[in-house]
Specification:
CATH topology of the largest domain: Rossmann fold
Strand order of the largest sheet: 10-9-8-11-12-13-18-23-22
Radius of gyration: 36 Å
Distance between the termini: 107 Å
Number of strands: 23
CATH superfamily of the largest domain: NAD(P)-binding Rossmann-like Domain
CATH architecture of the largest domain: 3-Layer(aba) Sandwich
Number of domains: 4
CATH class of the largest domain: Alpha Beta
Number of helices: 23
Oligomer: single chain
Shape: elongated
Strand content: 5-15%
């Protein structure tokens, strides 16, 4: 590193007050120099510093330094000086010029030519502006860029205000060199903005190769999701990195600055166009009310709690079975707000007496029932406990809500409850039926709402975290079937829509959240691998990084999920929420089946549990064998006993034959 670069580096690490002192000293020197040069230009000869020039210099200093201080000169970071700095200098020196000229040129001071009042401010303007720009140039070209020779060539997609601000913020970035803009507006093509050419996106393939582009930054905060995904899909065909700016709403809200570039996430590729939540619906059942969230430590439950907290409830009760999950969410919420009463309760929803105590103690206004076992594989392997939790846990919570006249109850359901093919889906569908039957059997004091939706990004039951982990570990990434599809939604939007759905309930409706188009998991995996900067290893690319392995459908797994039992959902006044029209079962009829189901669970008669579910739910289409661990172990034991008995019988026969 050169001596000049070292000096600049030492200048950077100085404290702010020291840098301001240096800036003031520079301006003092410029006031002296420009006054002396003004006399030279006026008199056409150099003169010695005398009483007359000293007076002109003192007037300049006394005026300039306070004006420049008030104008914010000494708050500007020199190495980031740009057009805005020149504008500030222009305004401040204009104010200085008017006062200086009034004193020297109009009022007049003996011995000082009046024209000095015009010449000196003009020289000072160029001196001040030039000093800032020279320092900026030195930092960029001698210190900063010399230390980062391997800069990335960058294209900015979007020549609007966000793109222009991004360009200005990147001018001082030591690792990036902006090559130009891409913009869909044909009127801009081949024009220049801030010295950068605007190119036609249709020529991006040629441009990437010609200019050796490494990175494309999407400065399209207000573009619709479909167009955005089309752009990303096209850019991802090349071996380049694509990054993006935050959404326009985040920028407007002040959550981030326009220069906050972030990597593309899977949410950027999968999220649908989000509708701004209805604030009246969000607040209706929450504001100034006592709220209970079951399963509060889970992914959906915890996000519900975060959203509820923003709506200023009177009290928030967290009910959770897992100690660590409850501790984690309660501490998080307590750190967010100090004025709201957070009540963490370590309780199992299957514990009837404890639930009764909770509802009796707290005058609850709204219940969000999110407690459930939802991992399809684990539920399939632990049938009795899962059905007990998902069905009877829901039944007990709903029953207590009715008993203690809770005005609002919202059940978080699943798309797997529609024509279920696995125990998880069947148990959630039966939970829905229980809630409907209980509603019909009461005096209609408690309003019930059932909310169905598909996979939630980053939730504990979602496929996304598993895929991310497999890609991070280098693969193989497992895929059950090349044609399997799923619906996806962000966890924040899902929680907000659940709250709004509950507020629209008039009785016991089943609300369906608009999940957009289903996504083929194979395509999702390929995009995730690309986002990770890796390539797929297959027959067409044997040197790829990550292999995708087809494993076959698991027990109870569907190729695709559904949200409706019928085909005629009703619209609501919310664009993303519809009502299903599902059949009810009377409570009296259901109670007999539930009693039988409960007895079978207590006796661990797994096959009977499955048979009862199939009888209650005609739409339950189980085509897989029982894989419950306890059931398999018991079956193996029985088979072993039978085998031993058979061997003993054969040995007895042999003994009898020998005896004869």
């Amino acid at each position: 590193m050169s001596n000049l670069a070292k000096a600049l580096q030492n200048l950077i690490i100085l404290p702010r007050y020291a840098k301001r002192i240096i800036a003031v000293i520079i301006d003092l020197g410029l006031c002296i120099l420009c006054t002396w040069l003004a006399f030279y230009l006026r008199l056409e000869q150099f003169i010695k510093i005398n009483d007359i020039t000293i007076v002109a210099i003192i007037i300049s200093i006394v005026l300039a330094i306070p004006i420049f201080w008030l104008a914010g000169f000494y708050k500007t970071i020199f190495r980031f000086a740009g057009p805005s700095t020149v504008l500030t200098v222009s305004i401040a020196t204009l104010a200085y010029s008017l006062i200086y000229f009034a004193i020297i040129g109009i009022y007049g001071i003996s011995g000082i030519p009046r024209s000095i009042g015009l010449i000196q401010p003009l020289l000072l303007f160029f001196g001040i502006s030039g000093s800032r720009l020279i320092i900026r140039y030195l930092f960029i070209n001698i210190f900063t860029f010399k230390n980062f020779k391997n800069k990335k060539n960058v294209l900015i997609y979007g020549a609007g205000s966000a793109g222009r601000q991004l360009l200005l913020s990147l001018e001082n970035n030591p690792k990036m060199k902006v090559i130009g803009f891409l913009d869909d507006n044909q009127q801009f093509h081949n024009q220049k903005i801030l010295g950068q050419t605007i190119y036609d996106p249709l020529k991006v393939d040629k441009l990437i190769n010609l200019k050796n582009i490494d990175l494309v930054l999407l400065a399209l905060p207000s573009i619709n999701r479909l167009k955005r995904n089309q752009i990303i899909d096209h850019l991802n065909k090349h071996k380049i990195t694509v990054k993006t700016l935050p959404s326009i709403q985040d920028i407007v809200d002040g959550k981030v600055s326009v220069s906050d570039i972030k990597d593309l996430t899977i949410e950027d590729l999968l999220s649908r166009e989000q509708v701004q939540p209805n604030l009246e619906l969000l607040s209706k059942n929450i504001n100034s009310k006592v709220i209970l969230v079951t399963g509060a430590g889970g992914s959906i439950g915890s996000e519900l709690c975060r959203q509820i907290l923003k709506l200023k409830p009177k009290k928030l009760i967290l009910l959770e079975l897992n100690e660590f999950a409850l501790y984690k969410i309660s501490e998080e919420l307590k750190n967010i707000t100090k004025n709201l009463k957070i009540v963490p309760l370590l309780i199992n929803v299957q514990n009837s007496s404890r639930l009764n105590t909770v509802f009796k103690t707290f005058k609850i206004d709204t219940v969000y029932h999110a407690a459930a076992y939802k991992h399809v594989n684990l539920v399939e392997e632990n049938i009795c406990e899962s059905v007990k939790n998902n069905v009877f846990g829901t039944f007990l919570v709903a029953q207590n809500a009715i008993k203690y006249n809770v005005p609002n109850f919202v059940l978080i359901s699943s798309d797997k409850a529609v024509r279920p093919t696995n125990i998880m889906g069947a148990s959630k569908r039966l939970a829905e039926i229980c809630v409907q039957a209980l509603y019909n059997d009461q005096e209609k004091i408690t309003k019930f709402a059932i909310v169905r939706f598909g996979n939630v990004l980053e939730s504990s039951g979602s496929v996304i975290p598993k895929l991310k982990k497999q890609i991070k570990e280098g693969g193989p990434v497992t895929l059950t079937h090349p044609e399997v599809t799923r619906y996806f939604m962000t966890i924040t939007e899902a929680s907000q829509l659940v709250i709004q759905s509950g507020a629209m309930s008039e009785g016991c409706e089943v609300f369906i959240l608009d999940m957009g188009k289903s996504v083929k998991i194979k395509d999702l995996i390929y995009k995730m691998i690309k986002l990770s900067g890796l390539t797929v290893k297959d027959a067409n690319n044997l040197e790829g990084d990550v292999e995708v392995k087809i494993t076959g459908l698991r027990p109870g797994e569907k190729l695709y999920e559904e949200l409706l039992l019928g085909d005629d959902p009703k619209k609501t006044y919310h664009k993303k929420i519809k009502k299903a029209q599902d059949p009810f079962i009377s409570f009296d009829k259901l109670k007999i089946d539930l009693d039988n189901l409960s007895n079978s669970i207590e006796d661990n008669k797994v096959s009977d549990v499955k048979d009862i579910l199939e009888r209650i739910l005609p739409s339950y289409q189980s085509n897989s064998k029982i894989v419950d661990h306890i059931y398999e172990e018991q079956l193996n034991f029985i088979n072993d006993v039978k085998l031993v008995s058979k061997v003993n019988n054969q040995e007895n026969k042999i003994v009898k034959i020998k005896t004869k």
